[in-house]
Amino acid sequence: MSTSALKDSVLSHLKYSLGKDPEHATTYDWRVALSLAARDRIVDPWFESTRATYRADAKRVYYLSMEFLIGRLLEDALVNTGVYDDAKAVFDDLGLNFGEILHDEPDAALGNGGLGRLAACFLESLSTLGIPAMGYGIRYEHGLFRQRFEGGRQVEEAEDWLTQEHVWEFERPEAAFEIGFGGQVYENGGRAVWRPQEAVIAQAFDTPVVGWKGEWANTLRLWGALPKTVLDLQRFNAGDYAAAAEPEALARTISRVLYPDDTTEEGKHLRLKQEYFFTAASLRDLIRRFEAEHDDLRDLPKRVAIQLNDTHPAIAGPELVRILHDERGMEFETAMEIARGCLNYTNHTLLPEALERWSDGLMGYLLPRHLQLIERIDTAHQTQHPGIAIREHGEVKMGELSFIMANRVNGVSALHSDLMKVTVFKDLHDMHPDRIVNQTNGVTPRRWLRTCNPRLSGLITDAIGDGWIKDAERLSELEPHVNDAGFLDRFVQAKRENKVDLGQWIAESMGISVDPDAMFDVQIKRIHEYKRQHLNILETIALWQEMRDNPNGDWTPRVKIFGGKAAPGYVFAKEIIYLINSVASVINNDPVTSKWLKVVYPANYNVTLAERLIPAANLSEQISTAGKEASGTGNMKFALNGALTIGTLDGANVEIREHVGADNFFLFGMTAEEVMERRTVEGHAWDAISKDPRLARAVDALRNGTFAGGDHDRFRGIADNISGPDYFLVASDFSDYWRASREVDQAFRDTGHWARMAALNTARSGWFSSDRTIRSYASEIWDALPSKPLRNIAAE
Ligand code: 26V
After folding, report:
1. What average pLDDT is seen over the chain?
2. Which residues are bridge partners to 307 per DSSP?
3. Which of 58, 518, 584, 784 has a CB 3.0–4.6 Å from the CB of 557, allowing a cystine?
4. With a 6 A CB cut-off, is 261 part of the ligand 1 pocket?
């Protein structure tokens, strides 16, 4: 496609789809016109992908996920379809600011963090690999809350991405299912019949997901909840207007808002409704598609692989059994076998508080037939494998239910999968030793290198060609170049320019000036005690204190950058945010240290901000308590973009270190085993503090009001925790973290050596592509083959 054809298409959409004259078009209008022009180019490969799948009668993969953290779509679509440069030329020609147009798009935050972003990377890889697949989720009206800081404290505001038209989606009024809740179960001729008390309509909205070079496109199908009857006319006519609109309001709450808590399961009625709503709609949809081409449901496992992204869609097990047994009259055992043949379950956390359990009471109230079937599934399993129950203390354990209903169960890093086998799923693993498999996470190199870091990706392509974009392991071809001074200079230059850009953004948006030659040290992720942002800020305090003690010292300049949201109800995490902001305002205004140390915490961390920060990072903070971070995926994005990691042996850090080499990774801290042992030492925190005067002084600063305008109580909670129970072992890991951080300082001063290490991180991180992960799921779990690439629209 030529630039002029693209221009015609944009202008035509501006005129005929938006009804705007170029003279009066706003940034929004131009952005929508460009998006529609880009979308047009995806539709043909999308249709062809579907046709090819039908023709080949190929096995389909269904990825059921409560969250898809897709972020902005325009830039990715332009890059993947090969028209980015043309689009830029069109807008340059029109005299419009292309960057501004791209940044006008709202960031679709239909997820909390790692789990949701992983789902988005997987969809892109499934399309790039040409595997027939569909993502199923919820079309939340409000994604993850927007974060503001008020006096340093987090304030949440509703997110409203859907107030603007979502240009990428196609509404599908014909793809709609009635989803029931509550009511009773009757017996009719020996068969159970569930008569729900209330029902809503699940209606599909489709977004095409295009892969690299536009060769293949899959669908993200999100369900919106609609009322069965829009208006209760009788009530309306009787003058009761509020009551008349009630059914609509009730139905719509189901897809109204994403739950923002990713650690504690609060047993919310509405959350269980959301889970059943999207799971049931998705199953009905895929069965309908199956039956359009096949007539024997016993063949379902040959044609369909369903991946449950955590336990949120775990009700899929009982629901599938209910459909096959109750509605289609299959034997219970056969129904079980078929369901198990289709279903697979991914576990994303071992934190006990995040493992879903639903009370029998709530389950029986909302899904009475499912509770009966869960009992039966439990009994059947216990008959074959005595000794383990999926129900306990009046609750259904959704992890255990998912495990016994799954063909394969996987963890998301080698360490995590190993830990699953000896902790939460020990008994089940002993009974089913072949069921747990590991699938180490990955990230898409299209978004997380090619698109977000054009300078570095341009340099890479100049050196080794662009094959790495589709085959990231070819980044290893960079290895010989790390000994070439010219290449390393350009590598350093690209990083520096990214830092200058970020510095400008920080200056403009926060009024803080940072030195682009300082080390940019970044920790971005949800705020959790186990991720230990408080360890990082404590080390910052200790460093600041030493700088003040020794103002003539030769310090390595650092900019400590934080980003992340806390769940609204997570009090401790919110105190950590308050502490970081309070420390920032003291340190950033200290004339003695300000040439060496800055603390920057931009509000509202999201996918777009990650795309800005990661390319500019020198150091990646991956400092969770060993054994707690299932994998991490940010850690992979940093390594790919040439940042060095300071990290513990946790999650995928272990594998990153193996790949990039121990010399190119700053390791510190206890291992998962040592962590368990250390916890049994009485007074471990106190012991650690008494042995490290630096730590003692930093903790003291939390208690003496240094960062609280003299208020001794403000951060007492954090101080007491670190010196008391300290479950996450901040105190015990502090000294080693300090040591590693000073090693980082030293290493950073040797700019040539640092550049080499950074370039080696890029060259050796290709394995962490989500293409590798998806290939592995396809062969080890789904038994699904990539279909042949159809056409390369980028070359046309
Ligand atoms: C749990 C809950 C429970 C209560 C309601 C809302 C909610 C939402 C999400 C979750 C799951 C949190 C688990 C999670 O995000 N795990 C992360 O998964 C990443 C992808 O595998 C992995 O890289 C991170 O290490 C892991 O923390």
Report:
1. 96
2. 63, 344
3. 518
4. yes
Number of Cβ atoms within 10 Å of the Cβ of 574: 17
What is the Å distance from ligand 1's center to 772 Cα?
21
Which of 275, 349, 416, 625 should be mutated for ligand 1, with most atoms under 8 A from CB? 349
Confidence band for 786, pLDDT divided at 50, 70 and 90: confident
| Tens-digit pLDDT profile for residues 576-587 | 999 999 999 999
Nearest atom in ligand 1 to 259's CA: 6
Q: Is the distance from the beta carbon of residue 354 to the nearest atom of ligand 1 less than 6 Å?
A: yes
**CB of 415 shorter than 6 A to ligand 1:** no
In angstroms, the CA 535 to CA 585 distance is 18
**Residue 611 buriedness (CB in 10 A; 0-12 / 13-18 / 19+):** buried
| Sequence-ordered list of residues with C-beta below 8 angstroms from that of 334, at least 6 positions apart, any chain | 298, 324
Q: How far is CA 62 from the centre of its chain?
A: 18
Where does 477-570 have alpha helices with state H?
485-510, 533-549
Measuring CA to CA, which residue among 178, 201, 117, 78 is closest to residue 606? 117
Q: What burial class does residue 393 get, using C-beta atoms within 10 Å of its C-beta: 0-12 exposed, 13-18 middle, 19+ buried?
A: exposed
In the chain the first and final C-alpha atoms are separated, in Å, by 6
Cα separation of 728 and 676, whole Å? 10
CA separation for the pair 738, 757 (Å, rounded) = 21
pLDDT band at 752 (very low <50, low <70, confident <90, very high): very high
Q: Please report where in the chains the tokens 């990039």 appear, as a residue.
A: 660
Predicted confidence band of residue 230 (pLDDT cuts 50, 70, 90): confident
Q: Which domains does the chain have, with CATH numbers?
A: 1-56+72-106 (no CATH), 60-70+117-441 (3.40.50.2000), 445-768 (3.40.50.2000)
Q: Mean pLDDT lowest for which of 129-138, 261-270, 575-584, 754-763?
A: 261-270
Question: 762: closest CA among 581, 617, 648, 585?
Answer: 617
Q: Sort strands 619-622 and 644-647 into parallel, antiparallel or unpaired.
A: parallel
Locus of tokens 């509550």: 182
Residue 375 burial by Cβ neighbours in a 10 Å radius (0-12, 13-18, 19+): middle
Residue 215 φ/ψ region, left for φ over 0, alpha for ψ in the -120 to 50 degree band, beta for the rest: alpha
Phi-psi domain of 516 (left: phi exceeds 0; alpha: psi -120 through 50; beta: other): alpha
Handedness of CA 439, 444, 448, 450 (dihedral sign): positive
Closest C-alpha among 284, 315, 325 to residue 405: 315
Q: What is the pLDDT of residues 106-123, one digit of tens each?
A: 999 999 999 999 999 999
Neighbour tally for 585: CB within 10 Å = 14
Partner residues linked to 619 by β-bridges: 521, 644
The tens digit of pLDDT for each residue in 155-164 reads: 999 999 999 9
Average pLDDT of 24-53?
Answer: 97
Kindly tell me the sign of the dihedral angle through the C-alpha atoms of 290, 292, 294, 298: positive
210 and 83 Cβ atoms separated by less than 8 Å? no
Q: What is the CA radius of gyration of the chain?
A: 27
752 Cα–ligand 1 center, Å: 39
416-425: long-range pairs with CB below 8 Å, 24+: 416/347, 416/350, 416/630, 416/631, 416/651, 419/350, 419/627, 419/672, 420/347, 420/350, 423/350, 424/347, 424/350, 424/352, 424/355, 424/399, 425/347, 425/399, 425/400
Q: Is 183 left (phi over 0), alpha (psi -120 to 50) or beta?
A: left
Helix, coil or strand: residue 405: coil
**Residues labelled catalytic:** 348, 525-526, 531, 633, 637
Pairwise CA distance, residues 429 & 423, whole Å: 10
Full-model pTM: 0.97
Residue identified by tokens 């059914």 is 247
